[in-house]
Each structure stands twice: as C-alpha cells, then as structure tokens.
C-alpha cells in the first residue's frame, strides 16, 4: 500500500466560524452537500467529538465508516475512514477570516494496488469527486436557495386524487427529496416549542431540532414519559438544552396556564410547532365541556399561538408550523357545528374539520402577522403509534407504504429551520413542496363563514380566559 494524497481543497464562505464548524462537524449531514453520498448517519450517541462514528453510504453502492480521532472546536477535525475498497484519513481545518471562515479539507487515501493503478489511469476522477463535494459544501454554507414556488403540476396531480395519495406514501417522500437543498442555517441560538413530542412525528422533529443544536421546550401531558424522553434525547444528541412543560392540551385551562408560564419565563420563541393530536372515536367531551377533537386540534393551538405572540415577535426569524393532515381535503369548516354536536359523529370527520379550521387560521395569521412565517404542513402517511392505535385497519393495509416518523417530520423541521422557508407564509406543504389547501370548491368557506369562525374563536378566547387549572378540574368532578 502507498499513501496517495488525492484531495487538498480550500473554500471560503461568508459565515461565522462557529456556524461553519457546527454544520460540518455534524458529519452525517455530508449527504446534504456531497452528491456522491446516498445517506449518512451518526452511529454513536452524544454530540460530535473524539470517538464519534458515522456511517456514510455512497451512491456507488458501498459504505464508509468514519471515526473521529481528533476534535478541536472551531479549529480542526481529524477522521479515519474504512471501507471495502480503501482506507483514508480526512482532516478539516477551520479558520476565521475578515469576512467569514476558511475551510481546508485534506484527504489522504490508501488504495490497494489494483485501485491505485486505476487512480493512476484516471487521476482526474478522484479530483473531480472531491471538487464537486467541496463545491456542494460551499453552496450549502452560502445558504442562498430559492423558496419553492407553487407548482401547477403538483396541484393538478393532487386533484386527480390517486397521484396525490401516492405522494403521501414513502414512495412520494423518496421522489420529492431528490431536489432538496441543504439546511445549514444555524439553530444554536434558537428556541423551539413543540407540542406532542413524546411520540411519533413530534418526537422525530424534536430529535432533528436537538441535533441541529436548538434549545427545545417540549410540551407533554405525562411527566414520567416526558422525563424519559428528554433523558434519551440528551443522551442521543448531546444537546442538554431541553426543557419540559406539562399540559393536557385538550384542557383549555391547562393551555392558558401553559401560555402564562411561558410568557412569565420570557425570551423569544423562534419556532412554535403545533403538533399534538389524536383521533377520537366515539365522540368525547372534555371535563370543561368541549368536544375533544375541537379542543385539542383547534381551540388549544389557537389559544396557545395567540397568547405566545409577544414571544414570537421578539424572535429574529419567527416561525409557526401547524401540523395538519391530508384528511383536511375532505372537509369544509362547519361554523354552525364546530363541536360535532349534530348528526352522526365520526372521529375522522371531526378530526378533519378541526384540521381544516387550523388551515384557515394559518392563512388568517399569515395575513395578520407579516413578520412571522406561519405555515401548515401534512406529514403524509407515517408509521406512528397514533396511526396504529386510531386507524388499525388503515395501518394494517398500508403499513408497507408508510414512511418513517423522521420522514414525515422532515417538513416540520424544514419550515421551522431553513432560511428559504422564512420567506413564505400562509401555505400548505408536503415534503417541502407547496400544495393547494383545497382540492375542491366544495370545501371552501365563504368570506362570511370565515369571519364568523374567527369571531367565534375570539369569543372563546375571552370566555375561557378566566379558566384556571383548578376550575377545569372542578368542572370534571
Ligand atoms: N402519522 C401520520 O400519518 C399523520 C398523518 C396526518 C397528520 N398527522 C398529525 O401529526 C400529529 C402527530 O401525530 P402522530 O402520528 O405522531 O401521533 P402520535 O404518535 O399519537 O403522537 C401524538 C402526540 O400528541 C400528544 N398528545 C395527544 N393528546 C394530547 C393532549 N391531550 N395533550 C398533550 N399532548 C397530547 C401525544 O402525547 P402522549 O404521548 O402522551 O400520548 C403524542 O406526543 C398529529 O397532529 C396528527 O394529527 C399524523
């Protein structure tokens, strides 16, 4: 074997040193910037440091195993690499400049003799691969990507139902992700509040945001479950900045009390993620007298978001992400029966109507709050405990097509964290693409219905303002 220096590249970017180091040292994100990489993951727990290992699967069909040998924050990272075909040593040097950061990447490869011969025959090939990767890293760090626009083609496919439904599956996710851009925006100074993070999509989003370095406040109703989860998240990601707030969000008294505590604590909320949800069959009423889907999926996020406005307004790039559902496409808001009191009750219909209501709010808030990016998304069909327990028949029939919670939660994180998502508001997203909020005029509310709906919620805000947790509990007795 002989040492063969094949790559020594330097790039300069207009980003602070600590931001560049944070992005590059979480080396699993190499899949965002190196087009030769199919996927990558960190296979040890904790924040990147000496001893961290990454598995990088190459598009060419083989894997690389990285081991961090040296790690000096904001200065240097040294990794050894093993694979079926070669071993390597990769060194990354970071240096602050007047305008940003200089990054030098040096890779030394040890090829077995036959491959070394190949490299002699095609010396330009390795060089080209390296240069392409570094150009990708530079573009990732420059972070100047266009915001995806509405696509008439996607909207037409949605209206044809079957092509639209195909997008909800893991196949739709895989097709969409091909055109995605890196998300290198620094999250280390940002605070995310996320509801329903003890399971499924919320848990996946919380983990991704923790990995990006954000400070997290997790809203959960079960203290023991939340404490276990936070311990695991801290161990896995090395992010110690994770706090818990306890609230049963189907109780309006709890929602008000939560908002009061958060307001008293102060500080910006940069990302508010209204994700907690469930589907109720048969019809249930809370101790406070509200139908449960209405209370949990619509009234509670409405009250929480309106109350937290002062904390959102002090953020440099505030985002609100409302987690909806494709089921919303089937329903129109019924202002005369917001709580499904009349006719036969269906949990799926009550759920879809509440999600429709939150879409109307997304549009209304986007109009009213120009400085906040308010968006809604739906996760497609994801394999979560919520789907398994509330829709067992659907779950059994479609399990093989369901995406992972991480895949379903990707757009939540992208809307909350990416630079380009800050430039758009009031839209409905799936897999980082804009989709129409209605597939048929049948589900569109009139101007009067919209006004009435917003007035009814505002009245409920005033009427429930005096609720205290104790009153809520008394009502249940
Ligand atoms: N999975 C999908 O395919 C899919 C599709 C469309 C939309 N969605 C939406 O995605 C969101 C997350 O769903 P999921 O599939 O991840 O379900 P999940 O696994 O059941 O997670 C739901 C989360 O919401 C929390 N939650 C439920 N009721 C609550 C309450 N009263 N107070 C506080 N927290 C409460 C749960 O807490 P506990 O752990 O204590 O139960 C859990 O953390 C929901 O809004 C759902 O409507 C999901």
Question: Could you characterize the architecture of this molecule?
Answer:
This protein is α/β, with parallel strands linked by helices and 477 residues long. It has 2 domains: 2-142, Alpha-D-Glucose-1,6-Bisphosphate, Chain A, domain 4 (2-Layer Sandwich), CATH 3.30.530.20; 152-476, Rossmann fold (3-Layer(aba) Sandwich), CATH 3.40.50.720. The chain is built from 18 helices and 15 strands. The strands form 2 sheets. Strands 10-9-8-11-12-13-14-15 form an 8-stranded mixed β-sheet, with helices on both faces. A 7-stranded antiparallel β-sheet has the order 1-7-6-5-4-3-2. The protein is elongated, with a radius of gyration of 24 Å.
Brief rundown of the structure:
The chain has 477 residues and is an alpha/beta fold. It has 2 domains: 141 residues, START domain (Alpha-D-Glucose-1,6-Bisphosphate, Chain A, domain 4, 2-Layer Sandwich); 325 residues, Rossmann fold (3-Layer(aba) Sandwich), CATH 3.40.50.720. It is built from 18 helices and 15 strands.
């Amino acid at each position: 074997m002989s040492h063969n220096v094949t790559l020594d590249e330097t790039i300069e970017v207009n980003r602070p040193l600590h931001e560049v180091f944070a992005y590059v040292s979480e080396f699993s994100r190499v899949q965002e910037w190196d087009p030769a990489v199919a996927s990558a993951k960190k296979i040890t727990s904790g924040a990147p440091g000496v001893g961290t290992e990454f598995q990088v699967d190459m598009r060419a069909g083989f894997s690389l195993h990285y081991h961090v040998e040296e790690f000096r924050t904001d200065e240097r990272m040294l990794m050894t690499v093993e694979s079926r075909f070669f071993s390597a040593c990769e060194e990354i040097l970071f240096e602050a400049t007047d305008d940003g950061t200089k990054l030098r990447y040096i890779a030394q490869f040890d090829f077995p003799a036959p491959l070394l011969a190949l490299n002699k025959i095609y010396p330009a090939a390795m060089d080209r691969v390296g240069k392409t990767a570094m150009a990708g890293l530079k573009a990732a760090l420059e972070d100047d990507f266009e915001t995806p626009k509405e696509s008439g083609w996607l909207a037409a496919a949605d209206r044809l139902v079957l092509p639209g439904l195909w997008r909800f599956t893991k196949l739709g996710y895989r097709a969409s992700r091909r055109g995605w851009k890196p998300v290198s925006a620094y999250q280390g100074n940002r605070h995310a509040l996320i509801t329903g993070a003890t399971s499924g999509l919320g848990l996946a989003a919380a983990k991704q945001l923790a990995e990006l370095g954000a400070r997290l406040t997790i809203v959960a109703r079960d203290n023991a479950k939340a404490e276990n989860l936070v311990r695991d998240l801290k161990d896995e990601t090395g992010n110690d900045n994770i706090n818990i707030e306890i609230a049963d969000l189907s109780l309006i008294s709890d929602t008000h009390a939560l908002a009061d505590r958060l307001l008293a604590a102060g500080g910006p909320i940069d990302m508010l993620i209204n994700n907690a949800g469930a589907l109720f069959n048969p019809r249930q009423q809370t101790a406070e007298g509200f139908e449960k889907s209405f209370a949990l999926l619509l009234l509670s996020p409405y009250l929480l978001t309106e109350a937290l406005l002062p904390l959102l307004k002090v953020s440099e790039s505030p985002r609100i992400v409302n987690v909806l559902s494709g089921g919303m496409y089937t329903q129109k808001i019924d202002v005369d029966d917001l709580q499904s009191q009349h006719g036969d009750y269906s949990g799926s219909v009550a759920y879809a109507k509440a999600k429709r209501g939150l879409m109307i709010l997304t549009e209304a808030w986007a109009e009213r709050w120009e400085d906040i990016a308010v968006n809604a998304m739906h996760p497609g069909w994801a394999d979560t405990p919520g789907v398994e327990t509330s829709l067992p028949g659907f779950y059994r029939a479609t399990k093989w097509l369901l995406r992972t919670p991480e895949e379903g939660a990707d757009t939540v994180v992208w809307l909350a964290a990416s630079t380009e998502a800050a430039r758009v508001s009031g839209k409905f997203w799936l897999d980082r693409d804009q989709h129409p909020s209605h597939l048929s005029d049948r589900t569109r509310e009139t101007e009067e219905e919209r006004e009435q709906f917003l007035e009814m919620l505002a009245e409920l805000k005033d009427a429930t303002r005096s609720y205290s947790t104790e009153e809520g509990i008394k009502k249940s007795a």
